[in-house]
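It is worth pausing here to work through a concrete case rather than discussing structure prediction in the abstract. The textbook approach is simple: state the sequence, then state the predicted structure, then interpret. We follow exactly that order.
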Amino acid sequence: MSIAPDGRTNFDRRGWRNSFLEILGPDSAKAKKVVQVGAGGAGRAVAFALMDLGVADLIIHDLDPARANALKVQLSSNYGASRCRLAGSLEQDIADADGIVNATQVGMRGFPGCPVPVAAIKARHWAADVIYTPMQTAFLSAAVAKNARVLNGGGMCVHQAVAAFQCLTGVTPDVARLHRTFASAVAARDAGLAAAS
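Step two, the predicted structure:
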């Protein structure tokens, strides 16, 4: 969790990190090379979570080079310049990586598309998304088609709620119950969207 000077709290970093650990496991990040697309608010949280997880080389890509560089500078000041850099050729960087993260809105309902070249995704990769509307983005569908392991944004949402509940009450909630509640809410949401179409 981070608390801003004005008292606002953010549980994105912890939520994403704990979802990653739950689904992909610590060995998927420790000493690995990861390409992250997106350096905005969610991207910042995910990048710091990846550093927490021990990623050796984080390659940052964003359509706004200044935003990507600002995140690189922040990470470098906290973790050292050797652990992060800006993307060169996105396709080549992905080809050399162990994992790929989408921290953009591309793939979210209303923002169709895949944020990375699909041809670069391989079975040896893991692919993670922060999006949960829909749960299976074009990016994750492409990764599944290549037999890569995937992580959708649903777990981040659940683990954000866990962290917030702990912070506000001092009580650790039942994570499995929260997962079930989230899955029921998503099913109801998707059924409503399908009926409205």
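Step three, interpretation. The two ends are 38 Å apart (CA to CA). The first helix runs from residue 12 to 23.
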